[in-house]
Amino acid sequence: MDASGNLTSLSEESEQESVHPSSESVFSNVPPLPPLEFSLQKYSQLDWTSYFDQEDDICIPETENVFHVYKAGSEGPVVFCLHGCGYAGLSFALSASKIKEKVRVVSMDLRGHGKSITDNDLDLSIETLCTDVLAVIKTMYEDSPPAIVLVGHSMGGSVAVHIAAKRILHSLAGLVVVDVVEGTALASLIHMQKILSSRVKHFSSVEKAIEWSVKSGSLRNIDSARVSIPATLKYDDSKKCYIAQEGLEETEKFWRSWYAGLSDKFLSSPVPKLLLLADTDRLDRTLTIGQMQGKFQMVVVRHTGHAIQEDVPDEFATLILNFISRNRIGPHGIEIPVLRKPSKSDA
Questions:
Q1: Is residue 269 classed as helix, strand or coil in its secondary structure?
Q2: 154 is catalytic
Q3: Which of 209, 189, 305 is nearest to 251 (CA)?
């Protein structure tokens, strides 16, 4: 039935109810929400505590750097999540609430993002980002780190790959890269300044920022946006408004270093690997050959945008858990089944 048909039907029902008061709905006297109030309610902020179990500030010894992390789960290997440029650790909130049922989750606010505080928030060189992540892991777990599965989205995926390729994180047991491929990423850099300059940066309220993120198509899951977007905003007292992630344009000199040589580094990483893509068009030649040779697992997650972990958090969580199970990754690394000793009855 078309829209006009629905309206006609509703109008007739309303007239009938006015003639027969006894048949009125128990909600008939409740005044409707004003349009603005309804919009604010629909895009209101959701608290991260519904998804993660705790937050913590990791102070790096002998530096001024303090990195904010969110934690969930109590046992199993650690899924260590690294967000993309302009996002924050809460980008993985909804998926973490599912992943933590089986394993542990840590999601970190990278330098210049979220609640992390560093000596230079604009130093997003790949070496600095890798050093930051390794320092956080070292500070958190000291000399006895659990098995770690690095999960990185976009820029965070680049960081995860570079760390894996260094082969210095000895407890690394798996690598998951979310929607970033060298060829596509390098080709898109020419458009990045235009994209950043055209985005809305000032919002009268947190709700307006959440609404914009969904209506612009950058995020497709309202609930995820309601958790993650507030962490990317800062309130400006002088301008009396909320400001989105600042300074990204100034980090342009680092962008190419994030992605140059990424495909070869990914393929050379000596751990089980999973590549999650929103579209097969993102696959470059090097990875196409590697995928055909069975060097990594690839899954194309349909009907999502760039932030797969936010758009379809349940499916994302299932893919992560299946990857861990398939590769038998336990709390201390890859679990090798114990060979059963032959019994006398076998003789």
A1: coil
A2: yes
A3: 189
Q: Report CA-CA distances (Å) from 312 to 134, 155, 347.
A: 29, 19, 53
Q: Is 306 tagged catalytic?
A: yes
CA distance 146 to 241: 42
Extract the residue ranges of the chain whose pLDDT is less than 70. 1-39, 338-347
Render pLDDT for 161-197 as a digit per residue (tens, 0 to 9).
Answer: 999 999 999 999 999 999 999 999 999 898 888 888 8
Phi, psi of 249 (to 5 degrees): -60, -30
Sign of CA dihedral 34, 35, 41, 45: negative
Tell me the two tokens of residue 332.
Answer: 């201390």
Instruction: Note the helical H segments in 51-181.
Output: 93-99, 126-141, 155-166
Residue 236 annotated to the active site: no
Cα–Cα distance measured from residue 114 to residue 300, given in angstroms and rounded to the nearest whole number:
29
Domains contained in the chain, CATH given: 54-194+252-330 (3.40.50.1820)
Point out the catalytic residue in the list 107, 116, 306, 311: 306
Q: Alpha-carbon distance 43 to 84, whole Å?
A: 22
